[in-house]
Structure formats: structure tokens, C-alpha cells
């Protein structure tokens, strides 16, 4: 296991007795020593500082003990992925934290993203985590009620409400004008009596402070830090985390914001070490969207996980505050004749929900991996070229992360995995 918070069972110290000891005294001493050793073994490992602060955690299942998975509220529709699937796939046993995506940011405040999916949708007994159907008059239904049931089955599991994302990040520009009011609104929403006790903290996914994503923000280098400072002041010892850019290129998004100063207010950062490359460059060159390392011919410097983590560390952010990211999906092109990366294409490959992207659970059989590059897998089938992580490459990434002292891993998102949790079970 990886991380700075290594745990060691208490060790019983023994001293050598010298001189002559009466038989009865020696026997009593031996019995006492045996009793102490037995008690020590029963006590088990001592809690780490993180456990003392945030409560008991499940047995570590990732490099630094944290395995964070995103659950999307829109997944209950076309994807037909529900909270119960987290349980039946075995993923709940591996997760330490769930990030519930997404809440919106409107008028400088945290707001509900989808009230029907979040707390209104009714579940039958067969669909419910505990096998009990919702009733028409119960005060809370939807994902929130199902997540509460999941937490009851897994008391160590923590749930954070994630706000923003690619589509809803524009609202952070207004929120940054009055960080304290924003933090107040978020706290009140998470602490709403209807679902009180569900959320253990907040996750911010601002794409991107003082830089461009779907829209461009010009709030300045200090805006993100001011926002996180206000959230920490309001949320106290609850979890405050953030998904951040993985762009480590010279002059890239990572340099547009003071992530170092802001890091003192977060429990951990989640640099999004995926989507480095994709079919938004319709003609290629083909390249893996989540490379661990650079390789000969990679299209852009600083676009790989190792470069991202190295740059954040060079800013003074410790590995104990960094998780590395995994995508439970692939990105691909069509019109490709070259099996190796670096080929030309005619456009994005077809996908179930969106062109150029497909779940791992589909790709593993539709277009099996044919090679690896930069520590991740790629596949050439017919005229399509895809890249995605496999259980093997995820295991290797975990070995690398262990050497880096990272706090764990996170992934986007749960519904992309197989029904038996093939990818999440490969995380270490």
C-alpha cells in the first residue's frame, strides 16, 4: 500500500531478565507477557490521522487508501445505472468515497442539478439497494435515498456532492465574486433536512479557473484559492476536495491558477489525468487519452500523468494530497489504417451515447486491446482506433502511484465498468 500514513501494529517491548528469579516469579512474568501480547494483537492497527479526522475508513483498496468513484445522476436514465449497481457489482466494497455528479452553480450559489433523479424518482423493491420499495408519501426518494441505504450497508463509505463539471462550470465565475456567500449556500444545500447526514463533504469541479473550458473565466489567479478558503472555513472538518486540470504543458492551464496556495484548504486534489487527447482533433493524430508516461511521437508535451503529478509536486503540493485519475471509458477515431498511435483519421468513432467515446464494458469485447503505449492500452479494429485502460494497465499505474506516495486514485465513472466491477477491482 502507498501513502505517507503507513500503519503499524504496536509492538510489545521485551527486556531481558538477568540474575536468578524464583520459579513462581518467572511463571507469573511469562503469563503476564502472554496476556499483553494477546491484547496487543487484538487491538490491531492504530487509526491514521485521516481516520481520526474523518471517521473510520474501510480497509484500504487503493494506493494511499482512497478510491474515489464518480456516480452521475443522469446515469439513471439512458444508461440505466443505479445506486444498487454499485452494490451488486462489488464496487461498494472497493470504494472509500463516492462523488455525486453534478450539482449546478447558479446565481453565485450551489443548486440542485436534477431534482427528479436526485430525490424524487421512485424505486421498486427490485431496484432498491435494500430490497424495499419506495412509497408515495415518503419524504425522500431518488438517488439520495438509495445512497443513504448504501451507506447503511457500508458505514465507512463517504459521499461528496460534486458541483460544476464541464457543462456547469460557468457559474463559478459569479460564485468567485462572493466566495463566502457561495460557501454558505453550498453548506446549507448539503445540510438540507430532507437528506441530512448523506453528504460528508463537497467536491468542486471548476473547468477551469482563470482559463478556458466550455467557457472562459477571467477571475484571476487567486479566485480559486479564495473560493476554496471560504469553503474550508464554512465546512470545517468535513471533506473539501477539487478536481483540477491535468494540463502540465508550458504556459498551460495549470499555470493560470495558484493551485499551491489553494491546496492548503483541500483534503485532496484530483488532477484529471485523462482526456489528454481525443477525436475533437478529428483527423488525429491518434493518441491514447490517458497515458501514464510520455512516448516517442506523443502529440503534446506535458500531456501525461507523470508530467501532471511531477508539475504539481514541483509547485510544492505533496503527493499525500494528490489522487491520480482513471477513465473507465475509451476515446477513438474512425478511418484509421495505422495500428500504432500517430495515425491519421477521418473523424470520431461511433459511440453509444456520443461520438468518439465509449464505455470500457463495451470496448473490451467490441474492440479488444492490440497494444500498449505510454502505460495504457490501445486497440485497432477494422478502421477504428481506440485507447483505454485495462485491468493490467490500471494495475501498473497503481504500482507507479505507490512509488510516488500518492493519496489514492479516482475514476470517471462507475457506469463504464463491467457488471462485476472488472476495472475497480484492478485498482491498487
UniProtKB/TrEMBL annotation:
<protein>
    <recommendedName>
        <fullName>chitinase</fullName>
        <ecNumber>3.2.1.14</ecNumber>
    </recommendedName>
</protein>
<keyword id="KW-0119">Carbohydrate metabolism</keyword>
<dbReference type="Pfam" id="PF00704">
    <property type="entry name" value="Glyco_hydro_18"/>
</dbReference>
<dbReference type="GO" id="GO:0008061">
    <property type="term" value="F:chitin binding"/>
</dbReference>
<dbReference type="GO" id="GO:0008843">
    <property type="term" value="F:endochitinase activity"/>
</dbReference>
<dbReference type="InterPro" id="IPR001579">
    <property type="entry name" value="Glyco_hydro_18_chit_AS"/>
</dbReference>
<keyword id="KW-0146">Chitin degradation</keyword>
<feature type="domain" description="GH18">
    <location>
        <begin position="65"/>
        <end position="428"/>
    </location>
</feature>
<dbReference type="InterPro" id="IPR050314">
    <property type="entry name" value="Glycosyl_Hydrlase_18"/>
</dbReference>
<dbReference type="InterPro" id="IPR001223">
    <property type="entry name" value="Glyco_hydro18_cat"/>
</dbReference>
<keyword id="KW-0378">Hydrolase</keyword>
<comment type="similarity">
    <text>Belongs to the glycosyl hydrolase 18 family.</text>
</comment>
<keyword id="KW-0732">Signal</keyword>
<dbReference type="GO" id="GO:0005975">
    <property type="term" value="P:carbohydrate metabolic process"/>
</dbReference>
<dbReference type="InterPro" id="IPR029070">
    <property type="entry name" value="Chitinase_insertion_sf"/>
</dbReference>
<dbReference type="InterPro" id="IPR017853">
    <property type="entry name" value="GH"/>
</dbReference>
<dbReference type="InterPro" id="IPR011583">
    <property type="entry name" value="Chitinase_II/V-like_cat"/>
</dbReference>
<feature type="region of interest" description="Disordered">
    <location>
        <begin position="41"/>
        <end position="60"/>
    </location>
</feature>
<dbReference type="GO" id="GO:0006032">
    <property type="term" value="P:chitin catabolic process"/>
</dbReference>
<keyword id="KW-0326">Glycosidase</keyword>
<feature type="signal peptide">
    <location>
        <begin position="1"/>
        <end position="43"/>
    </location>
</feature>
<keyword id="KW-0624">Polysaccharide degradation</keyword>
Amino acid at each position: 500500500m502507498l501513502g505517507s500514513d503507513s500503519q503499524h501494529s504496536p509492538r510489545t517491548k521485551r527486556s531481558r531478565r538477568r540474575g536468578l528469579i524464583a520459579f513462581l516469579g518467572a511463571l507469573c512474568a511469562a503469563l503476564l507477557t502472554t496476556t499483553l501480547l494477546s491484547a496487543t494483537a487484538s487491538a490491531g492497527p492504530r487509526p491514521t490521522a485521516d481516520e481520526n479526522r474523518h471517521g473510520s475508513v474501510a480497509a484500504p483498496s487503493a494506493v494511499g487508501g482512497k478510491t474515489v468513484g464518480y456516480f452521475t445522476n443522469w446515469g439513471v436514465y439512458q444508461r440505466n445505472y443505479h445506486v444498487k449497481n454499485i452494490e451488486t457489482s462489488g464496487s461498494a466494497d472497493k470504494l472509500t468515497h463516492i462523488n455525486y455528479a453534478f450539482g449546478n452553480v447558479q446565481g453565485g450559489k450551489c443548486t440542485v442539478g436534477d431534482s427528479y433523479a436526485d430525490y424524487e424518482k421512485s424505486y421498486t423493491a427490485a431496484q432498491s439497494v435494500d430490497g424495499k420499495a419506495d412509497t408515495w408519501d415518503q419524504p425522500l426518494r431518488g438517488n439520495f435515498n438509495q445512497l443513504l441505504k448504501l451507506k447503511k450497508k457500508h458505514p465507512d463509505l463517504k459521499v461528496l456532492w460534486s458541483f460544476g463539471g464541464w457543462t456547469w462550470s460557468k457559474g463559478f465565475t459569479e460564485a468567485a465574486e462572493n466566495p463566502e456567500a457561495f460557501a454558505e449556500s453550498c453548506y446549507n444545500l448539503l445540510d438540507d433536512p430532507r437528506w441530512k447526514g448523506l453528504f460528508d463533504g463537497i467536491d468542486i469541479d471548476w473547468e477551469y479557473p482563470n482559463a478556458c473550458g466550455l467557457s472562459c473565466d477571467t477571475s484571476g489567479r487567486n479566485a480559486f484559492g479564495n473560493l476554496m478558503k471560504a469553503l474550508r472555513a464554512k465546512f470545517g472538518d468535513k471533506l473539501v476536495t477539487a478536481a483540477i486540470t491535468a494540463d502540465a504543458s508550458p504556459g498551460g492551464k495549470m499555470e493560470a491558477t495558484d493551485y499551491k496556495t489553494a491546496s492548503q484548504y483541500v483534503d485532496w486534489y484530483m488532477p484529471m489525468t485523462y482526456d489528454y487527447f481525443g477525436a475533437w482533433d478529428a483527423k488525429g493524430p491518434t493518441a491514447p487519452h490517458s497515458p501514464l508516461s510520455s512516448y516517442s511521437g506523443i502529440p503534446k508535451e506535458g500531456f501525461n500523468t507523470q508530467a501532471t503529478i511531477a508539475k504539481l509536486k514541483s509547485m510544492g503540493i505533496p503527493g499525500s494530497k494528490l489522487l491520480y485519475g482513471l477513465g473507465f471509458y475509451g476515446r477513438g477515431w474512425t478511418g484509421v489504417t495505422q495500428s500504432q498511435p500517430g495515425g491519421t483519421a477521418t473523424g470520431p468513432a461511433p459511440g453509444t451515447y456520443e461520438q468518439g467515446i465509449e464505455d470500457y464494458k463495451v470496448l473490451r469485447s467490441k474492440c479488444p486491446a492490440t497494444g500498449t503505449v505510454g502505460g495504457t492500452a490501445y486497440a485497432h479494429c477494422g478502421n477504428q482506433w481506440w485507447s483505454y485502460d485495462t485491468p493490467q494497465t490500471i494495475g501498473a499505474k497503481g504500482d507507479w502511484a505507490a512509488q510516488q506516495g500518492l493519496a489514492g486514485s479516482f475514476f470517471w465513472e462507475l457506469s463504464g465498468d463491467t457488471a462485476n466491477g472488472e476495472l475497480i477491482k484492478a485498482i491498487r
